[in-house]
Amino acid sequence: MKVIYLKKIFLIYLLLLIGCKKNENISEEVVIRDASVQSLDDDIELKLYLESHYYNYEDFESSPDDYSIKIKIDTISGENINKTPLIDMVEVQNLTVKQDGVDIPHKLYYLVARQGLFDKPSNIDSTYVVYEGSLIDGSVFDSRDLPLWFDLAQVVQGFRMGITNFNSGTYVLNSNGTADFKDFGQGVLFFPSGLGYFSNTNAGIPQYSPLIFNLALYTINVTDHDNDGIPSYLEDVNLDGEPLNDDTDEDGNINLYDPDDDGDGILTINEKDKNNDGVIDDSNSDGIPDYLDPDN
Ligand SMILES: [Ca+2]
Ligand SMILES: [Ca+2]
Ligand SMILES: [Ca+2]
Ligand SMILES: [Ca+2]
Fold it and tell me: What range defines the domain where residue 211 resides?
């Protein structure tokens, strides 16, 4: 009896597996939207949002030294009908996203409530941030009140590019181990789904959702992901502003994660400055440093 029972369970399991396979095949056939059309649709939606909402700029104007103020966004209506809309306060950052090898233009809008006083991060550094992520309908999908480190290599393009518009701050350590931050950049990023998750879903984020990130940039750490002595922002060999698309030896491992960038068997850390004079070596003076030159 038991064997038959188990056989039945196995059969049901097998049928379920086949069922799942079928569903997978169906979902694979779903057509991914055209990124250029989606970018324009999202831009219309974002502009409508920015025209119909404002933020508590008066709080920031009246207490410029109070770093506990949070950005609050609300609709322009009723007693707030005369507030300045976000659309008159944001700046635009033009970015591109590749779809089928074609660069598709995307517009990111960013609001600077405070610029911040110290270093700006590159788009590949680590940033110590608090943030709240929400959709255009106001629903919050993620929120951190306590600061955490974000490796910008790991986050969506809109966040990693948008945050480079802000300067970091400074802090004093308290005796109990906490820190008080001040002089940091604070603002909001508004960007189309193509700079977010596009056709993918994520916790609380439906497909094709423009995203809003309310953030404060406390401090930054210039990151060297592969510890080869070349900071990740300098591993952008083709100088297009994107360190995630450079793979000198074409081994599928991009330079910022590849400890031997030119694939000549000598680690970059041992090849970049052999005589330790602080200058990157270019032995055959061809303009290509040794660590990127397989002929050297
Ligand atoms: Ca590196
Ligand atoms: Ca690049
Ligand atoms: Ca490589
Ligand atoms: Ca090498």
Answer: 35-221
